[in-house]
Specification:
Layout: H1 8-18, E1 20-23, H2 29-46, E2 55-57, E3 66-69, H3 77-85, H4 87-96, E4 100-110, E5 118-121, E6 129-130, E7 134-140, E8 151-154, E9 166-171, E10 174-178, H5 184-189, E11 190-193, E12 200-204, E13 209-211, E14 221-230, E15 234-235, H6 237-253
Antiparallel strand pairs: 1-12, 2-3, 3-4, 4-14, 5-13, 6-15, 7-12, 7-14, 8-11, 8-13, 9-10
Helix pairs in contact: 3-4
The chain binds 2-oxoglutaric acid (AKG).
Length: 257
């Protein structure tokens, strides 16, 4: 276990206060080399077998513009092991203070020059959980900064009761975005999280976050996302399924996947 994971109490307390944590780095350079090799293998060998609803491209006709993958751990034993038995699950259990259920592993890319912004949103808005106890882990697969679209958090935003208003964004992969983002408090509490490959972030399902477009003409911005629900969080399965079916139908009818 990395040294940074030794002080569980401090980690849980700062997460509870801020709504996020950053570990720089969680994985070493050599571990990231190996992980990036597995990502390349997955994209080459596994992606062609995945259903279209789980593979998003920035430009559908251009296979080099791969933007997002869903549920990676269901298709490959390496990523299943990373999701079920890796350090990220332990961190999720530390900050939530209970056992967790692995839900989604996502690949997030912003291809050079065309990668779109990630609209401000709260993940819990589309998780449909009661109580909303869940976290998202985010691992930088390469160096990230303002130019290629690093993550921003609104510190402490998870403490506000309920969710902020969300609406359709038209952005593939981030269909719901906040409609009232940008208050004085949002601006005052915003923090940008640049870092090198191996930098790890985790946020509460209520923490407001977003990322800019990739303005670099040469660098991509690749990351791996890990979603875990607390065992005590109960899924409103009907609401969730209706939401997902609507989303899939919309993706197909607009020709986005
Ligand atoms: O990678 C990104 O730009 C956004 C990731 C995100 O919104 C999330 O993991 O919840």
């Amino acid at each position: 276990m990395p040294a940074t994971l030794e002080n569980h109490e401090q980690m849980a307390a700062s997460f509870k206060n801020d709504g996020y944590l950053a570990i720089e780095p969680l994985y070493s350079e050599s571990e990231m080399l190996a992980l990036n090799g597995e990502i390349r293998r997955f994209i080459q060998d596994v992606v062609p077998r995945m259903p279209a609803e789980r593979v998003y491209y920035e430009e559908k006709s251009d296979r080099s513009s791969l933007k997002q993958l869903q549920k990676m751990f269901e298709y490959d034993s390496y990523f299943k092991d990373l999701m079920l038995n890796g350090a990220v699950r332990r961190i999720a259990e530390i900050v939530l203070g209970e056992k967790v259920v692995p839900v989604n592993m996502q690949y997030f890319n912003k291809p050079a020059g065309i990668g779109k912004p990630t609209p401000p949103h709260q993940d819990g808005y589309y998780f449909h959980l009661k109580p909303c106890r869940a976290v998202t882990g985010w691992l930088a697969l390469e160096d990230v900064d303002e130019e290629n679209g690093c993550i921003h958090y609104v510190c402490g935003s998870h403490k506000v009761e309920g969710f902020r208003d969300h609406g359709q964004t038209g952005v593939l992969g981030f269909s719901q975005g906040m409609t009232d983002f940008g208050t004085q408090e949002d601006k005052r509490q915003s923090i940008s999280l640049p870092g090198s490959a191996g930098t790890f972030l985790m946020h509460d399902a209520k923490t407001i976050h977003w990322a800019g477009a990739n303005k670099s003409k040469t660098r991509s911005r690749r990351a791996l996302g890990f979603i875990y629900y607390a065992e005590s969080a109960k899924l409103d399965a009907e609401a969730k399924e209706a939401y997902q079916l609507g989303l899939d139908a919309k993706l197909r009818s607009t020709g986005a996947v």
